[in-house]
Design brief:
Length: 338
Amino acid sequence: MIKKAGIILAKSLVVVFACVGLYASFYSCQRDSVLKKVEKLEANRPYDKDLKYHKPYGEPIFLVRPGNATTLFFIDGFRGQVAAGHYLDWFKALHENYHINVVCPVTGLQGWPVAYRTRAWHREEDMRQALQVYDAYCANLPAGHRVVTGSMSFGGFSNITLAVFGKRKPDAMVMVAPVNTVLDYKSGSALMRWLATQTSWLRYIVPLAMRGGNKERATLYDIVNSGKNLETWNALAKDTVNWEENLAQGLHLTETAEYMEKDLVPRVTNEKILILYGDSDLTFSAAGFESLAEKLRASGNRVKTVKFAESGHMLLYDNGGDAAKKLVLDVLQNRYAF
């Protein structure tokens, strides 16, 4: 009897280990297949051989003159291949024409080759890196120097981080299409929208996937104006888009948005905050942006929101882009009425 039970147990263990081996093999093959496809697509990208920055626009930006009296400290979105570098012309105009310093750190998974940006990621990386650069820059600023923190999309998480933990509080904050807890998943089919809500278990089956198309727009970029969309794509995006989706990172993003709104937002107080967003954003809904604004108001901040017609998530490139940049300039020059 004991011998028979031992044989059954041994066979059961063999089956279990075989299943685990098959799963590990499937998981590895699926991941490696996507990595090889993406590595081939970006084989000619100009990454720095030592620091791995995506050149020429993926390096940190420091447009600084000691005599200037205002700084825009700007953080771009999640995994951006050139971080905030695709706004470099705008930043240079602010610096040269309006005597504004512009500082943009590279944080988290921004600007990495695919083998680096598909690793395990933790939100504390973005928090620490943005905060260290911000505190170091602000440490020796003269009295009266105005500092405005700005952000795009997921960069809003770092923006909130600076308001909570920064040794010097911002004089004002501007958040463009900020990350929040109301994800809309408007792009793609109904099936893909449903799958986007199932990352908690799907990531164990499909760790990486090739990025799908965007039937709502002229290219993968969420820019409503087709002319501006194609112009931006042809000028920059073909060589800077991340071709893979990482489901585990997608889940962590959702968890980070929840952490931000639940644990960080209530600790932001006495700030002047401007939230700008497009009415046709495919990632977040207007309700999500307005809900974030209400939560910030509830913790004792003066918050304004501005919605731009016929504009998507990449607002600064879209129909409302020029008007949005004008409002940012008004905040920088302390002319915006909060």
